[in-house]
Amino acid sequence: MIPIENNDIAMILKDLSVGYASKKVVSPILEEINLKLPYGQLICFMGPNGVGKSTLLRTISGIQKPLSGQIVIDGREVNQITPEAMAKSISLVLTDQINAGNLTAREVIALGRYPYVSWNINFSKKDLKAIEKAIKLTETTSFIDRKTYELSDGQLQKVMIARALAQDTPIIILDEPTAHLDLNNRVAVINLLKKLAENTGKAILMATHELDLALQTADRLWLAGFNAPIISGIPEDLVLNGAIDKVFQLKGYDLRTGQLEKRSLGKKVNLSGQGHEYLWTKNALERNGFEIDSAAEHTVSFSLENDEITWQIEGEGIAITNTLEELVIHLNKLLKY
Ligand SMILES: Nc1ncnc2c1ncn2[C@@H]1O[C@H](COP(=O)(O)OP(=O)(O)OP(=O)(O)O)[C@@H](O)[C@H]1O
Fold first, then answer.
1. Whether the complex's predicted ipTM surpasses the cut of 0.95
2. Where does ligand 1 bind, in terms of residues with CB under 6 Å?
């Protein structure tokens, strides 16, 4: 494997231990963390509930002290960096329970410039340019002058990402930026972050539970399991070497196909064809307990004409147009289910 060059590294975590300490007890949550955060990559930080993702993100963003070990940013240890310099290095996006009061989306995004503006908040041309660039990149223009309490969760989430962009830091850290979003917005947010890492060279680290999206988009995963060091690797390696299975102990989800495991009721049918019609026919059959088997007695095929799909159960003289529901009913009758 080609080693990552040191000047491509935004942050190094050395023998880091994170957790909570009171006067009486020390409770380590994640230990022996040795990781590098490279520039220009989107890293998805994954692991089961309560494993310590937020704890680590808060620690490396400087809002919580490490229990031991080192966090090195751009060659300097974090405890030697002033809070002002930290604010120019890392922006943190916490998307849960956002309370932006009476501010408009534009005002929230402008807050991202706080490390750069003087106490009387005089925006320079550079500040205004950074704000406009953030608005453009996140496509927030259409609701930019609305109060934040008038925005949907997805719009608000984009505003918080825009604020981090306006802060213009080489590192962006996000804690579950796709929580509460619909599928389109989840895909939009993760694609936006991927594009930003690629086009701006920023190091972007996000905690997420979106296994399917992360497998398809992230440049790298950090995988945290209970009582084990965090593993770092590209998604495909972590699927094939079993690391993901081990960490999540997936039940009912087949990682090799990225789909829920199908229950077979012993009904076998052969399916011929290709394309997305094939995939959705297969989905309907498997979801209804059929197993696709080329040696099965009955074969389903389909043809396409004028945007209509017609399925046939070969040799049975049955033709069904545009509804898989009926196909399943016929097959169940044929196989006496
Ligand atoms: N302020 C705190 N004091 C003590 N323990 C805490 C504190 N905050 C969190 N914890 C504990 O630390 C552990 C890790 O919590 P954390 O929120 O970091 O996990 P997570 O991986 O982000 O979880 P999730 O996926 O559910 O968001 C949990 O056992 C939690 O109860």
1. yes
2. 20, 29, 47, 49-55
